[in-house]
Each structure stands twice: as structure tokens, then as C-alpha cells.
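Priority: low. Protein: TetR/AcrR family transcriptional regulator. Input follows.
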Amino acid sequence: MGRKNMSEERRAMILDAFEVCVGKYGFDGTSLERVAEQAGFRRGLVRHYLGNRDDMVLALAKRMVARYYSQVDELLAHMGAGLDVAGVVALFFPQQDEDQGDHEVMMMEHLIAVSRRYPDIQTMLTEWLDDFVTRLAAVLSGIYPQAGEERAWQAAYGLIGLYFNEESMASVQLPARYNEAARQSATALLTHLLTAPKV
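Result:
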């Protein structure tokens, strides 16, 4: 594969700097001046390569959502026909000492916080979540065909909700009982919705 051209490299460097600044200061506390300083470029070059602040916010949102899609792909690749409820729960709720991707979680929280001001980000996040729930429901339906599509979708959404809460609180380093409660809640949800007979 060929070398990136200078514009692509500088654009990536500036976007990296913007991501670092948003991680430190949030979207509202991140100025073009801070991004320029972090990137080692003049403010004018930042605008030249990434546009105004709104353009930068959307570029970063696209980058982060692409990462989130990749993470979903990786997670779902570990799920298969022989997986039981305990196996599904273990994939979503690893023991607390494992790396939980604090940076991605923090960036997701920042994107959610600004999404009301950026309808394109609302759309990106909604489409990503819908894709995640739909794909997880399809996998769960394949593992537990007796559950039916609607119950599999409900289980997928509930599991993802528990997962998001657990991930968003990871940097607080809550006592282990919270992780165990999330695991037990996910187990109860999946057992009830996926393995109990339909009424």
C-alpha cells in the first residue's frame, strides 16, 4: 500500500490532536488554539485541513463511530452457536481488572453530550446503536431460536443497556459487587427472555 499523501497525514495528525483535546477538555472546552498547540501547527493550518470547529466535531464523530462499528464486529465475531448464557455474559462483562476501553467510553459520552446540537451525530449514533442491537438480536436468535425475534431484540437491547452502564462507570472503579450485579442481571435477563418458554 502506498504512503499517505501529506494532506491525509496532516489531517490525521490534527484529528488526533482534536481527539486528545476533547478527551482532556470536552467538546466545549476544546478550542482551535488548543488543537493547533497539541498538533504543533498554526491555527490557520488546522482550519485549512479540517475546517471550522463544527467540521472537526463531525470528522471526529465519524472516526469514533467507525471504531465503535469495529468493536461490535469484534465482539460479535466471538459469539457462535455453541455459546450459552454464561458465555454471552462473560463476553459483555469481563472481570473488572480487564481493560475496559476508558477512552472510547469517554469519547462516546462526549458525543452523546453534544448530539443534540449536531443532528448528524444523533443520526450516526442512532444508526450505530440500531445496528448493534439488530445484529446482536440476530446472533441471539441463532443461538436461541425458541426465543423468537422480538424477545431476542429485547434481550439484545437490555444486555447492551447493562453493558453501556457498566462501561461508563468503569473509570469510577466501583467495588466488584457492581460488576457482579451487572453479570447477574444480564444472566437473569437472558435466561428469562431467551430460554424461558413463550407465554
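The mean pLDDT is 89. The chain has two domains: 1-51, 61-195.
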